[in-house]
Amino acid sequence: MERAERHFHIVEKLKRLCGSGFAAVAVLCVFSVDGHASDFDEANQLYDQGKFSSAKQQYEKLVEAGEGSANIFYNLGNTDYRLGSVGRAILNYERTLVLNPRHPEAQTNLWLLRQQTGARLRTLLWFERAVATQTIGVWTMCAAVAGWAMLFGFAFIWMSRGDDKSGLWLLAVTSTFVFAASLSASWVAAKDQTLAIVTARQTDARLAPAESAGVAEALPAGSRVRVLSERGEWVYCELPGAGRGWISQKALERVRPERS
Amino acid sequence: MTPSSNIFRHWVVWIALLIGALGAIGHAADSSVRASLSRGITVIGDPVQYQIKISGARRIVPPQDPLVDGLVIRYAGPSESAITRFQNGSFFSERTTTLVYEVVPEKNGSFTIPAVALEVDGKTMRTEPVALTVQPSSTPGNNDPDTIGFAELVMPKKTAYLGEAIPLELRLYVDARVRWQPIAMPEITGEGFTKQKIPEPQRSQAQKNGKEYDVLTFKTAISPGKAGKITIGPTEIPFTARVPRARRGGQRSLLDMFDDDVFGDPFFSVSQQIKAKAAAVELTVKPLPAEGKPHDFSGAVGSFQLAADGNPKHVRVGDPVTMKLRVSGRGNFDRMTAPVIKDPTGWRTYPPSNAFKADDDVGISGTKTFEMAVVPEVKKTEMPAFQFAYFDPTAGKYVTLTTEPAALSVEGGVAPAPATVSIPGGETKLSPPPLPAPPKPDDIVGLRYDSDAPKSFVPPYQRREFWLAQGVVGLVLIGFLGFKLRRRPDSAALHMATLRRQKTEALDRLRNGELPHVEFFDAAARVAQIETALATGRSISEIDASVVHASARLDETTAGVIDEIFNARAELLFAGGSRGDDRVSAAERERVLAALKQLERSHGTS
Fold this sequence. Notes:
The complex is a heterodimer.
Chain A: H1 2-48, H2 52-67, H3 70-82, H4 86-99, H5 104-117, H6 126-131, H7 136-159, H8 166-191, E1 195-198, E2 202-206, E3 215-220, E4 224-231, E5 234-238, E6 244-248, E7 252-254
Antiparallel strand pairs in A: 1-4, 1-7, 2-3, 4-5, 5-6
Chain B: H1 3-24, E1 26-27, E2 32-37, E3 41-43, E4 48-55, E5 60-61, E6 71-87, E7 90-105, E8 109-113, E9 117-120, E10 123-126, E11 130-135, E12 149-154, E13 159-161, E14 166-175, E15 180-182, E16 193-195, E17 202-208, E18 211-224, E19 228-232, E20 235-244, E21 269-278, E22 281-286, E23 302-311, E24 314-316, E25 321-331, E26 340-341, E27 347-349, E28 353-358, E29 365-376, E30 386-392, E31 397-402, E32 409-411, E33 420-422, E34 428-430, H2 464-486, H3 491-511, H4 517-536, H5 545-551, H6 556-575, H7 586-603
Parallel strand pairs in B: 1-7, 3-11, 13-22, 24-32
Antiparallel strand pairs in B: 2-4, 4-7, 5-9, 6-7, 8-11, 9-10, 12-14, 14-18, 15-20, 16-18, 17-18, 19-22, 20-21, 23-25, 25-29, 26-30, 27-29, 28-29, 30-31, 33-34
Helix pairs in contact in B: 3-4, 4-6, 4-7, 5-6, 6-7
């Protein structure tokens, strides 16, 4: 009897503790979201007042605080454009599309700025275009869910003593196809982890890591390259023209920040 | 008249005509004087020839030997040549006298042999000054009399800028008396510079330290790729030479043997592979200055000119104009990029193609032509201006060249005026103006004011929580499999357990003294069968007394009891024995149980 009472008390205490914890987390979340929203609004106001440098600082503060969202990167891109830094504007629109591949405003502005700068891009293949419609997170989660469904499906088929296993077979085979497709898409999307954008107004990819080396390809602002390796102040890249060359680190920036 | 007298008359006529023609030969009217050196670069002790060529002169008074500190200049004598040419019906003879001087450098440096004044046909004429560079020899030991050949790297400068194209010569000197031939093209080694492909070498002859040499000159150009001191070479040039066989008792040097007439005779000489090694030379490379660097500077270093031309000259808005941009001069053409459009507003440009035409063997002098398509997007009146930035190493500063834009006529770009149409029986009306083309966006879309959830650029597979979740699901799957596997016992073990249970039950019944004969012997036979089935794994239905005997080593008594059990059961069950309802005596029960115990022992299954 005493034991039952004690058990009841422990459960009650745990309930209360959990309730308080949830309340505290909820309050923190509300304050956090509220703080983030107010900083975001403040940055937007600064932009509207034409104080682009201050607005940029405010957006960047939010990004550094880990509050970077698709809309913050988009607005940061607009601010960079107003400040005359077309390369950085394109970089931030690219970042927006990494977080939300169907951000309509970022797509429009990116198209416009690429037209203005003549940015060089590698032509995407059909499956690369298909993969680009979703984030790598979506593809990875899809692969994980389909993979487990496949494994559980085959396990049930093996264990089941029933005669009719057609439903299980359908689940297992469908999951296998979805798993294979999602895994391939994740692999293709993972290659974009090394994507970088030329932020300098105009730069030259060189055949060797030296200012005086021969030019491999001329790259206007906004050109997309893939980083292969780094050597001091030079980055070895896969170029839009399918060749490879060295670009000064100052002239480009990775789409996925190092500290993301 | 005899044939011999005819021939004689022909000869007389020809000689008379020749004398007449010679009498009519005139002399070229103008005299000219020109000074030159056989080489512009040399080393200490390596003489070069200084020549003063006087053309069209009749009387020349040789000048005094020029005096230059560091150079010993000695007059070696004159040489004369004459050319006779037929011009405007008359013969003209032009005589050229060359005054030859030997110049022996005594110290390193850049020297200028000054203008020399000399009297030609009573007039005083002057030569142009000529320059000579004397640099330290890169070939130690080239005075060694036993050296058949040696090599040297010759570079006109010791200091250069990053990316500057510098001509480089690799010279192979081989004793002129030796029959020799090169084996392979040399390779210039070293780090921190790029080099041009070496074209076919040039052969010449030169005198060095009073000795005649065949000279093979390999020309190339290098371009330093890093600032600081870089080392070019050393380099080896392999060649084969026919070397005289050594004679017995001879103490002479190898080259003394070349003076023998037997040289070149395969019987007295042997072919030998020799590698002439040129010592390394050093170059100090200065970085390009950061100050004054134009934003469109792409690495061109040298001295250049820029010209531009575009075609066609009349286009519509949106039609391309092909611009030909020619950059000519001397420098690092391999690192040169196209000139850039000065004001790109209203122009759409495409990446240019390029072609290079070299004026020399090593590609540091010539013209690079870029072809670029430019498209006017609005009405324009002139071609776009292009600019090209380069670094001039002589002046030590950046230079930006700009083209003069030529006239261009661009049509279109304005919407046509509305046309008038007349309606029958009515007034004239204006037709509705054509719909304007959808405006091209010229500004970006504005801000997004709605805040969305923060997201990370880190993909899920790089996050710990993702793999934790996968681990949890994996554990669930493993647990499920384990649970299911544990719940599937082995059917054979199950069968054995059933048999053991049945055996225990049957033995319990046997020990119960209340059993009638039928049931007792049925249960006893059942125990014997189960016991044998457990031991042999055979099916119970196959087991009779003989199988029981075969499965165990039983003594005669036990075997007899087993037979008795099976016989009694068969008799009672199938023959309807009279003792069916009698109880088994205690002694009989003990005897049967003892036999079954013995069977169990012999099987070892208890």
